[in-house]
Specification:
By secondary structure, the chain is of the alpha+beta class. It is built from three helices and four strands; from the N terminus they run αβαββαβ. Strand 2 and strand 3 form a beta hairpin.
Length: 95
């Protein structure tokens, strides 16, 4: 895992599992992934092979969901620059 590619929220998320001695949950987490330039088909396939389910691509930023255990393999890809947890700007009413 390339920890220098991780944003602060995803670092805290991963540290929470380490602090309780738990294994990483298989439930998907929502992430933003920044890549070097707009990804081509080969790079998107590499992300999928690493465990990411890519949804939206906007230039060099992608939204995806993946299992927490797959964050490391995604950061190992050369074209991945940064990974951060996707978080709402404003909480939904009633939550």
């Amino acid at each position: 895992m390339h920890s220098e590619k991780l944003g602060i929220a995803v670092r805290r998320f991963l540290a929470d599992f380490d602090s309780v001695g738990g294994s990483l949950a298989p439930a998907p987490v929502e992430v933003l992934i920044r890549v070097k330039g707009e990804p081509d088909d080969r790079q998107r396939e590499q992300l999928v092979s690493a465990g990411a389910s890519v949804r939206t691509v906007a230039g060099e930023v992608l939204t995806a969901s993946l299992a927490a255990a797959d964050i490391g393999p995604v950061t190992d890809l050369d074209h991945v620059v940064y990974v951060e947890l996707a978080q709402p700007l404003f909480p939904e009413p009633g939550r």
